[in-house]
Amino acid sequence: MSSLVGSSVYPLNSRNVSYLSTGNRTSRKKVDTSSIYTRKFVCCSMAPQNLKPADEFRPSKFNDSSLNLFTEDLDETDVLIECKDVYKSFGEKHILSGVNFKIKYGEAVGIIGPSGTGKSTILKIIAGLLTPDKGEVYIRGRRRHGLISDDDMSGLRIGLVFQSAALFDSLTVRENVGFLLYEHSRMPRDKIQELVAETLAAVGLKDVEDRMPSELSGGMKKRVALARSIINDTTKTTIEPEVLLYDEPTAGLDPIASTVVEDLIRSVHCKGNDALGKPGKIASYVVVTHQHSTIRRAVDRLVFLHEGKVVWEGMTHEFTSSANPIVQQFASGNLDGPIRY
Ligand SMILES: Nc1ncnc2c1ncn2[C@@H]1O[C@H](COP(=O)(O)OP(=O)(O)OP(=O)(O)O)[C@@H](O)[C@H]1O
Q: What residues does the ABC transporter domain cover (predicted)?
């Protein structure tokens, strides 16, 4: 699927057209959202009701390096997302056949596995873009029913960062990054403008607010899209934990550009520091990737999907030394082994 330049999943209207009024233009802009139509369903960008403040929710045991230890006896209150026996078919094609895994608060998890094994599909199910045929997805312990809509908040902000930038071509960088806030918050325009500049600075961009996407390099577009994913309504009294789902963020990038993106992913995580030196705001993230550099650099724990099931889970450093023949074959790229193409 697309590159880091993704964008969070927006609470768009059910039409394919949205109108953006930024207050600093003489007319409202008509934005064709059909190219990102799936985002209208996802939405976890509006603050859900009855949320605990993030600090109250944050498990104290995860304030240190124990974050990197995944154990079966984890405290269930630490779990942000759980996939329980998830099945998904497309027509006659059975893609997911009982997927089980949990994502804890503070985790940086990679989903890996052979092509066509359903990695992007499970990401879309978590994001609410697809519904499972069978099985359940729990978000902070609450079962998700169907697709997410603006009225069915999950209690957790979830953003899906598409592989492609998916920026609105007809909007400036400022309007792209502030889109959600212009559309769905009561924040004053000047405050949004300030927040957009601050969020862009957090991903290492300055003085680009008035540019159009066509005036940006590929790497800059990725940063703008990431800024759009992490911008938050600061007037809300509750700050909910946020999860970002990245679908192949480094696909098609050269090794150095990949490193930049991998570091950016780390920098906006709560355990990292953004370009302004402030702690990142993303509680947990999941990266679907094929890239070895991304596996090594951007995630701490891996979930290996094969033939519709999780066949291995472990820490990143355990990946290359695993005795599991499926993992061994995948790590070495060997043609011989249980994975057949
Ligand atoms: N909406 C859809 N309709 C029909 N088939 C689909 C749909 N989405 C995915 N598939 C099929 O499901 C299978 C799994 O797709 P998915 O993109 O989840 O795999 P993946 O593991 O992410 O693959 P890759 O690593 O190659 O990106 C593929 O065979 C794909 O063609």
A: 81-332
